[in-house]
Amino acid sequence: QKEVEQNSGPLSVPEGAIASLNCTYSDRGSQSFFWYRQYSGKSPELIMFIYSNGDKEDGRFTAQLNKASQYVSLLIRDSQPSDSATYLCAVNGGKTSYDKVIFGPGTSLSVIP
Amino acid sequence: DTEVTQTPKHLVMGMTNKKSLKCEQHMGHRAMYWYKQKAKKPPELMFVYSYEKLSINESVPSRFSPECPNSSLLNLHLHALQPEDSALYLCASSQDEKKRTYEQYFGPGTRLTVT
Given an 8 Å threshold on Cβ–Cβ distance, is A43 in contact with B107? Predict the structure, then answer.
């Protein structure tokens, strides 16, 4: 089992719709959870982080964490063409300690005008 | 300020050259990282420095040599690289112990081409 898995893409949504990105992780002791956005040829940009169970909202982005199910998601409301990018889920803590951040394979999102 | 800087932005080197990549952060983070990223793949961890000491080496070939001169600087020395080492090299930092936060921030990367 891979340590961090993401729903396979590419994911296409129409402009204005909600994009839902999902991530599961295997280390039950993981403590910190991150979502990065990466445009082609650019470095990853941290857009959301969440440490506690529940929802965390920041503008059009909502991160949801369920530690019992080992599941974290990212919702993007009112999707815009500029949201078209690869989204990377990452976790750290747990048995790997806070020194190591483990990335999922990424989900490519395409927002269609 | 969440800025991590990297130089150079682009680097072309031959297989017999020696070059260095540089990274700097002024966020007071205690951990600094080197990643390698190939197209359409997630970042692949190479090294982690924690409190200026090497804490993780992900079995990286010795032609890559990291160095952490102080808490704000991180270098990656390159020697006798292979064409397959061509990639985007990313520096990152994290862990503000005063604020007890663990978010990791990336620099813009160095695009390396080995000829």
Answer: yes
CA angle B40, A100, B48 (to 5 degrees): 95
Residue A7 predicted with pLDDT over 90? no
Give the separation between CA A83 and CA A19, rounded to whole angstroms.
Answer: 10
For B49, the token pair is 């420095």
Provide, as residue numbers in chain B, all residues whose Cβ is less than 8 Å from the Cβ of A36.
106
- Quick: pLDDT tens for A46-87: 999 999 999 999 999 999 999 999 999 999 999 999 999 999
Nearest-by-Cβ selection for B50 from A31, A49, A99: A99
Q: Do the bridges between strand B10-13 and strand B110-114 make them parallel or antiparallel, or are there none, so unpaired? A: parallel
Chain B interface, best mutation among A38, A100, A101, by max B CB count within 10 A: A101
Q: Name the token pair of A26.
A: 């295997």
